[in-house]
Design brief:
Blueprint (H helix, E strand, L loop, with lengths): L9 E5 L10 E6 L12 E6 L2 E7 L14 H10 L4 E10 L9 E2 L3 E5 L24 H12 L6 E2 L3 E5 L7 H9 L4 E3 L2 H10 L3 E10 L12 H24 L26 H11 L5
Parallel strand pairs: 1-4, 1-5, 5-11, 6-8, 7-9, 9-10
Antiparallel strand pairs: 2-3, 3-4, 5-10, 6-11
Helix pairs in contact: 1-4, 2-5
The structure holds zinc ion.
Length: 292
């Protein structure tokens, strides 16, 4: 499945509490198989304000995949295959800062990856590539997502923050929360890495809308986070995320001046001429234009 089928332009990866996207018209469901395994679930493609949008529940529609076993490479590959160019990734996060309150939205601008042993590249064999990742979220898409998040009047949003991605699935100890705060982290979650890395490798623009569900466990006089707490705050606030995405799809989609689509152009170290036909086929959708 190396040929791009151009079914959709905008991808939405829904996190905890966002398992579907009601209101899509002219819906098709895609159960895809990729060279990197099967995505978390079917990808639902439909019309939203005249845009073709591909929705994927990150953990599956029944929340059956844990953060550590998410098929992230397959998810990103599937969106790329369907023609997606811009991805809005929605995540539930804990807050490590007093001013980032539960129920509020953060559009992070930085990412720290504390995960261990997850597949974080498409290019682990057959082809070696080292991409710049100083700006882990697409700056251009972030601005547009910020405008959309800002248009939702009944929720407070924050225009920057460092997202710390931990392995999980347990939440942090108090000692870890203290260390993470001292290190300058703002919000904590379990999924932004390697998702943002793989999206960049695939030439997709990606921005994250992080919904704060709790204060992790660092705050005095506050109950430490529980899964039930996360689910309840998500249930109450997911409507604001949907509103922001609706606004985003109504906004004009401009030129991709950010360079994400060609991030791979100057990153390949290998001599493509020595690649096997199998590796070439496996990576054609992602790296084909740069292998001639
Ligand atoms: Zn971009």
């Amino acid at each position: 499945m190396a040929t791009n089928s151009v079914e959709a332009e905008i991808g939405i990866i829904g996190g905890s509490g966002l398992y579907d996207f009601p209101g899509l018209g002219n819906v098709s469901e895609f159960r895809l198989s990729t060279p990197f395994g099967n995505p978390s679930d079917v990808v639902t493609v439909g019309d939203l304000n005249g845009r073709r949008v591909a929705f994927l529940a990150r953990h599956g529609r029944h929340h059956q995949h844990s953060p550590s076993s998410l098929p992230v490479a397959a998810n990103i590959y599937a969106l790329k295959y369907l023609g997606v160019r811009e991805v809005i990734s929605v995540s539930a996060v804990g807050s490590l800062r007093e001013h980032l309150r539960p129920g509020e939205l953060v559009v992070p601008d930085q990412l720290v990856d504390f995960t261990r042993g997850r597949r974080s590249t498409f290019f682990d064999r057959g082809l070696v590539a080292h991409l710049p990742f100083a700006e882990p979220f697409c700056p251009r898409l972030r601005e547009q997502v910020l405008a959309s998040v800002g248009s939702v009047t009944d929720v407070t949003s924050h225009d920057s923050g460092t997202y710390l991605c931990i392995e999980g699935p347990q939440f942090s100890t108090r000692a870890e929360a203290g260390v993470n705060r001292a290190l300058g982290m703002d919000v904590i979650g379990m999924t932004a890495a390697p998702e943002a890395k793989l999206a960049r490798e695939a030439g997709l623009c990606l921005a994250t809308i992080a919904l704060v569900t709790d204060y992790d466990c660092w705050r005095e006089n506050e109950e430490p986070v529980t899964a039930a707490m996360v689910a309840e705050v998500m249930r109450r606030n997911v409507a604001a995320v949907r509103k922001a995405i609706l606004h985003f799809t109504r906004s004009p989609r401009g030129e991709r001046t950010c360079g994400c689509q060609d991030a791979l152009a100057h990153a390949i170290m290998s001599n493509a001429a020595s690649m096997s036909d199998g590796d070439r086929d496996r990576l054609d959708l992602l790296a084909g234009p740069y292998l001639s």
